[in-house]
Amino acid sequence: CPPTVSSYVELDVSGTVAVVPTAMAVWIDTEGDGVLDIIIGNSGATDGAIYVMGLTSTSCAGNAAICLTGTVTTITASTSGFTGVCTSGGGSACLFGSSLAVVGDIDGDFVPDLAVGAEGDDCGGTDRGAVWILIMDVTSVRSNVRICSSSAGMPSGLIATDGSNFGSSVSGAGDINGDGIPDIIIGSPKELAVTTTWKE
Predict the structure, then answer these.
(1) Coil, strand or helix: which one is 81?
(2) pLDDT tens sequence across 146-157
(3) Predicted confidence band at 133 (pLDDT cuts at 50, 70, 90)?
(4) Angle at 125 between CA 40 and CA 21, to 5 degrees
(5) Cα torsion through 99, 35, 19, 46, rounded to 10
(6) Per-residue pLDDT for 131 more than 60?
(7) How many whole angstroms separate alpha carbon 134 and alpha carbon 32?
(8) Helix/strand/coil percentages in the chain, nearest 5
(9) Is residue 174 left, alpha or beta, with left meaning phi > 0 and alpha meaning psi from -120 to 50?
(10) Contact at 8 Å (CB) between 129 and 117?
């Protein structure tokens, strides 16, 4: 028989961070209570932000199985160790947090790392987009790298169209080439391949 949902819990984050989430990922247990926490993205917060939010399974209203603890760490430009600088001004804001994925442990410190899309970043041209790799501690950023047009090993001309929105989606892909480093898949839904053909 087809799978069915046996139970669910609705988490309303608006009372904690007052934003509308644009992306979400399950994170590690930052508070040591045996419950995995979450990270949400909000690309509309100025140039965007992500939030590490604690979850608990105790003292939840209405006997819910899980609820927010109220503990939040905000990661945006110049906060929580993130030193990245978005390039914006030609079109929309950077939209950092438009996509989000836990990609695995890149640096071998036993803390998984993140890929965060910024589909409005103007790196290389207006709204061509970018993806930030965040090397994480539990709730802060140790270092960061921006992947965008002709940057961080991206071949020149690969993101050649303004408005490409590279970084609108991102996913971990495991270790595709067997080098011990996690790989990622990135969507660029409006990048022109030829005259009237779009590629993902």
Answers:
(1) coil
(2) 999 878 888 877
(3) very high
(4) 15
(5) -50
(6) yes
(7) 22
(8) 5, 35, 60
(9) left
(10) yes
Average pLDDT over all residues of the chain: 88
Closest C-alpha among 112, 86, 95, 106 to residue 25 = 112
| Inter-residue contact 121 to 86 (CB < 8 Å) | yes
Query: In whole angstroms, what separates CA 77 from the centre of its chain?
Result: 14
Please, what's the largest Cα pairwise distance for the chain?
A: 58
Question: Tokens 């419950």 correspond to what residue?
Answer: 35
Query: What's the distance, Cα to Cα, between the start and end of the chain in Å?
Result: 33
Tell which wins on pLDDT, 80 or 7: 80
- CA nearest neighbour of 130 among 188, 194, 172, 183: 188
Token reading at 60:
């939840």
**What pLDDT does 136 receive?**
96
The amino acid occupying position 61 is A
